[in-house]
Amino acid sequence: MARLIIMGPPGSGKGTQAEHLARHFGIPAISTGDLFRAHVRDKTDLGLEAGGFMDRGEFVPDHVTTDMLKQRMEDADAAQGFLLDGYPRTVIQIGALDEMLAGRGQPLDVVLALMASDSELLARMLRRAQEQGRSDDTEAVIQRRLALYRDETEPVLTAYSKRGILLSVDGSGDREAITASAIAAVEGALAG
Ligand code: ADP
User: Fold this and answer.
1) How many Cβ atoms sit within 10 Å of the Cβ of residue 169?
2) In what order do the strands lie in the sheet containing 3-7?
3) Which of 41, 56, 72, 128 is the catalytic position?
4) What is the mean pLDDT of residues 5-25?
5) Cα–Cα distance between 50 and 41 in angstroms, integer?
6) pLDDT bucket at 133, cuts 50 / 70 / 90
7) How far is the CA of 67 from the CAs of 7, 70, 72, 76, 164, in angstroms?
8) Could you tell me if 69 and 30 are in contact, meaning their C-beta atoms sit under 8 angstroms apart?
9) Lowest CB count within 10 Å: 37, 53, 66, 188, which one?
10) What would you give as a GO molecular function for this chain, any one (predicted)?
């Protein structure tokens, strides 16, 4: 079973693509953003801690995020394969994930990166703000999240590119066409 990561800037549609890819490959999509939002909604201690960071567009501290992910990865559905959405987002988190997977004897197969222009990203996020009313989708917070992506998360892409497991897919345009090319790219890499 496949062990995948999907990456992409806020607004790139990675959450939506993650759902479709996970279904295709028969693995759970594990989104740290969704896990945090569930904690916020349920008003858990973790949710209270994470919510403030999220509303400001800041990252939740690495150790908090990593502990939450570790727990989710222990669920039975993630034992053999998974698609991570939103983790790792920092170079520190790469190391934490490496350690987690080394302990399980499970190397990563593919890191898929969705690419899109800043203007498209901003437009999509402002649209999502109206549709979903996410508290971190105001313009100032969006700009902060885009900047953090560039400063903290693009180095993660570089690191995986050096390992030779990064695949880039054009994330602009039709949702179904993007899913199809992402599936084709991942299947090609898994076969080859
Ligand atoms: P998007 O990709 O649209 O920015 P996500 O749903 O992936 O949104 O994440 C929402 C928020 O959750 C982030 O802005 C951040 O505050 C927090 N978050 C999610 N994943 C991580 C992570 N790996 N490390 C730190 N914070 C995270």
Assistant:
1) 20
2) 29-31, 82-85, 3-7, 110-115, 166-170
3) 128
4) 95
5) 11
6) confident
7) 20, 5, 9, 17, 27
8) yes
9) 188
10) AMP kinase activity
Q: Which of 23, 43, 104, 145 is catalytic?
A: 145
| Model confidence, pTM | 0.94
CATH class, domain 3-191, is alpha beta
Instruction: Tell whether ligand 1 has an atom less than 6 A from the beta carbon of residue 53.
Output: yes
Q: What are the sequence ranges of the domains in the chain?
A: 3-191
- Extended strands (E) in the chain: 3-7, 29-31, 82-85, 110-115, 166-170
Other CB atoms within 10 A of residue 166 CB: 19
Q: Identify the band that residue 114 occupies on the pLDDT scale cut at 50, 70 and 90.
A: very high
Mean pLDDT of the chain: 95
The reply to whether ligand 1 has any atom less than 6 angstroms from the CB of 65 is: yes
191 CA distance to ligand 1 middle (Å) = 31
**134 in catalytic set:** yes
CA distance 50 to 33: 10
Which tokens belong to 76? 């039975």
Q: State residue 83 phi and psi, 5-degree precision.
A: -125, 115
Instruction: Tell me which of 14, 70, 104, 163 is the catalytic residue.
Output: 14
Task: Tell me, using a 6 A CB cutoff, whether residue 87 lines ligand 1.
Answer: yes
pLDDT at 125: 86
Instruction: Give the tens place of pLDDT for each residue, 16-27.
Output: 999 999 999 999
